[in-house]
Design goal:
There is one protein chain. It contains 14 helices and 9 strands. It has about 300 residues and is an alpha/beta fold. It folds into 3 domains: about 100 residues, no CATH class; about 130 residues, 2-Layer Sandwich (Nucleotidyltransferase, domain 5); about 80 residues, no CATH class. The strands form 3 sheets. It has a 5-stranded mixed β-sheet, sandwiched between helices. Strands 1-9 form a two-stranded antiparallel ribbon. A two-stranded antiparallel ribbon has the order 4-5.
Length: about 300
């Protein structure tokens, strides 16, 4: 198999629907069967991702988003939580479109706690210095995400993912007379007015399940109501220049790309899942991927040669 076809097979398997579909796509392209879906899987398992050199932090502020999802693994039919962070250093404008600067993806391997491992990743990838740089962390209300406040303390500003808050507001108040008023509070980053609206609505919804969810939402957001505010105003209060900083977008888009390919009823081996995610991240971050196909072939040739010499 040529290196071009080998690389294409791996990329189609990761960015497409499945290994099997990748094999069919290559067969359709070349006109004859080239490699089976299991062959593509083996090719992917025998790869190595080459990390880039460190990025130099150009700005004091460090921005990123994160989210997580659970995925089945074959071992004892258990699920494993995949925690992913999308990391970048701000925005640059290309005409009217904003582009993320030096965007990378961090995958938690689980050897250390999430924030310990993430901080090490920042140090090796971005020359992060906790005495100089400030983090803005955008995510939902999961405990492993909100624990960043205790870990980084004054070195980080936590922002609640507005997508999830808006989704809860829609589900609870879509047919409510105060729906528009509540949405405006969220849109204007008026977190104090928003919390007042939520508390005022207790006992005024049309069913018990909504009432229970409203009480849960109030209890959750009451732990960090300031996270609903505009992070740029908080940074200004810290003396940080926020020129060119944009609103934090939803972290949901980051995770959906990974979840769409990895979930949908599929189950994976631990090794297969880890390697697949590594290659998926490498393709997104434009990292070099070394295939070991050639090395394996050379090893096999040496083995065959030794056998022939012994037979002679």
């Amino acid at each position: 198999m040529s290196p071009v076809v080998q690389d294409l097979a791996i990329e189609l398997a990761v960015t497409g629907v499945s290994y099997r579909q990748a094999g069919k796509a290559i067969e359709k392209l070349l006109g004859y069967p080239v490699i089976s879906h299991e062959g593509i899987r083996q090719q992917l398992l025998n790869t190595e991702v080459v990390q880039k050199n460190q990025y130099h932090l150009k700005m004091m502020l460090y921005l990123w988003k994160l989210a997580g999802f659970t995925q089945k693994v074959r071992r004892k039919r258990k699920s494993r939580e995949i925690k992913i962070g999308s990391v970048h250093q701000g925005w640059e404008m290309n005409d009217k479109r904003a582009k993320l600067v030096e965007k990378r993806h961090f995958i938690h391997e689980g050897k250390l706690t999430f924030w310990e491992e993430f901080e090490q990743y920042l140090m090796t990838t971005y020359e992060y210095d906790p005495t100089k740089h400030h983090l803005v962390i955008n995510g939902d209300g999961a405990k492993w995400i909100t624990s960043c406040r205790d870990y980084f303390q004054h070195n980080a500003t936590f922002v609640i993912d507005r997508f999830h808050v808006s989704q809860d507001v829609q589900r609870l108040f879509r047919d409510h007379s105060r729906y528009r008023s509540i949405r405006k509070k969220v849109a204007k980053y008026d977190w104090k007015g928003f919390m007042v609206e939520l508390n005022s609505a207790v006992g005024m919804l049309d069913n018990e399940k909504k009432e229970e969810r409203l009480e849960e939402l109030i209890a959750q957001l009451s732990q960090y109501p300031e996270a609903l505010g505009d992070y740029r105003e908080k940074l200004k209060a810290k003396g940080i220049d926020t020129t060119g900083f944009r609103p934090m977008r939803s972290a949901e888009g980051t995770i959906s790309v990974f979840a769409r390919r990895l979930k949908n009823g599929r189950s994976w081996s631990d090794k297969g899942l880890d390697k697949f995610i590594d290659i998926m991240v490498a393709l997104k971050d434009k990292l070099e991927i070394k295939t070991l196909h050639g090395i394996l072939d050379q090893t096999q040739e040496l083995t065959n040669k030794n056998k022939e010499e012994k037979a002679a």
